[in-house]
Amino acid sequence: xxxxxxxxxAKRGLxxxxxxxxxxxxxxAPTRPLEWGDLNVLHTTDTHGWLLGHQELSPxxxxxxxxxxxxxxxxxxxxxxxxxKRVDLLLLDSGDIxxxxxxxxGSPPGTIDGHDSNQFLKRLPYDxxxxxxxxxxxxxxxxxxxxxxxxxxxxxxxxxxxNITVPDPSDSSQNVSVPVGSRFAKFRTLMGRRVTSLGVLFxxxxxxxxxxxxxxxxxxxxxxxxxxxEEEPDLFLLVGHMPVSEDNWPIVFDAIRVIHPTTPILxxxxxxxxxxxxxxxxxxxxxxxxxxxxxxxxxxVKFDNKQSSGSGNLTFSRRYLDxxxxxxxxxxxxxxxxxxxxxxxxxxxxxxELAENYDLSFEYGIAxxxxxISRDPYPSNGxxxxxxxxxxxxxxxxxxxxxIAEGIPALFLTNSGxxxxxxxxxxxxxxxxxxxxxxxxxxxxxxxxxxGIANQVLAVLNVEGSDLRxxxxxRTRKRMEEMYKRGDVEMIYNKWLExxxxxxxxxxxxxxxxxxxxxxxxxxxxxxxxxxxxxxGIGDDTPHTALPFFSTPGYISSIDSPSTAAPLNITxxxxxxxxxxxxxxxxxxxEIINDLEAESGSGKVYTEDDVGLYHNLLSNQVLGVxxxxxxx
Length: 632
Ligand SMILES: O=c1ccn([C@@H]2O[C@H](COP(=O)(O)O)[C@@H](O)[C@H]2O)c(=O)[nH]1
Fold this sequence. Notes:
- The chain has 632 residues and is an alpha/beta fold.
- The chain is 32% helix and 21% strand.
- It starts with 38 loop residues before the first strand and ends with a helix.
- The protein binds the ligand O=c1ccn([C@@H]2O[C@H](COP(=O)(O)O)[C@@H](O)[C@H]2O)c(=O)[nH]1.
- The ligand O=c1ccn([C@@H]2O[C@H](COP(=O)(O)O)[C@@H](O)[C@H]2O)c(=O)[nH]1 binds at residues 96, 133-134, 137, 271, 415, 417-418, 439, 441, 486-490, 584.
């Protein structure tokens, strides 16, 4: 069993190591052993480059402070345990390994993002992996998955409904569309179980030219699909980048169930960044294992008759593990001295070297405080969304900007989903810049938009105001659907956080009443995720108190901001302004401005030709330039 030490998450090659333990911070250890079955699975998803662990001291970051090297050692030790128990232990990943930290996004210009960090995933014994939407935003990244990553996995990198167009090897003057990885895989586990595995991506429509995602509904009608599932295995293993609730897993599940009514089906999803579990029937379980290497998912199943041939309910268990050394040591029965091996530490060292090569600890300035996406209200001094759109964008885009120099007022707009992680007090490094804002979006603009029109765009985007709501509902519903298909799941993650916080507040009220009645003191636990899902029993491996949550709008603007660095100088609704937005939301902004112009009777119609490049800074460079200007 684990000893009671804590592991200080020093900024490993990513920033200042001068953090001390004297802040009353601690990690809580799990208290319940895992329930092993005949077949067991460790699951990662949406890792987004978080391979050196979460290294900040502000709660709940220490919960997730284990490195990918620590995880590798954990997997290794767990595999040994499985062998001793003569049971199977599989390791799976559900995709989105790009976009999220300096390790995945900080490679030098001209190189391929994620290529180097992917090499570390290759060092783990994954049994199957699936492609995510973040592998499909940049063609060169997808090509790298096809030509390098997929090859390593020898048929186990799954892209059942995702293709890439490449030169035809037999005739280079022609192109062919081929799966990025494999459509399916059939293999035997160490204990001899026959597995048929698929890797399905949700109906993503935001894929880059040269790649393609087939809707799930069409995929299950394909001849190859029918042939792949025809023969009955001992279990179906569906690994995919698709939420396990309210998405299309039932389509795949039902297509299999028609042919195989009782064969066990294990589903491992992702994309929504939440911890979630659903059972579609008594012989299946679907698990989603969070995001950013904060969670490792665990599922186990006991088969009837030691094989799959029965028809009653199977015994499943699931658990969401916090990714820290205490968790890993607890479940492997090791301690600080016996846990780490050469295997894991060489992976961690390699990642640290990569961070050094990319100069990820380069310091832009010193952040004066923590800024969070949802633990502070928006707008507020502690909101990273306020910081980004009201301070950082106006200040960074004012650098070498003739339009600002000429005094042309500008309104800045972005989607709040463009901000992916909190900013912490202290050294603000290149890695921090890329974790907070990893996307390489350009800033585009429309000039000479009258302020009266520009001023309404944000409200329409966010569907605020009863008038707008009435006339815009249908359009908004369509846009939300469209946004979901383009990958937007912030609302699911935020709803999850919101509900867990609401439960926490209700629980605290009850506790307070009990405490007053009994004169007892509360049990204080560390902050973290508190999951309620629809599977039996408690899912979280370590009990926590839920994090504070404040809801945020889907879109944010510098509009009417008292702290905006570029004062608006607006005298009336007819004052012409520049409307500046990230290219990711360009279509929506253009459509809304045209609708508003039409409603105002101005006769103005904007086309794509009216859209210009506002500045040569990309969205992932804004915070660095800002920090150099404001935090030095
Ligand atoms: O260029 C981009 C690409 C994506 N986004 C945001 O990311 C989500 C999708 O990320 P998941 O991890 O798959 O949820 C998308 O909806 C946007 O919010 C972006 O802002 N810019």
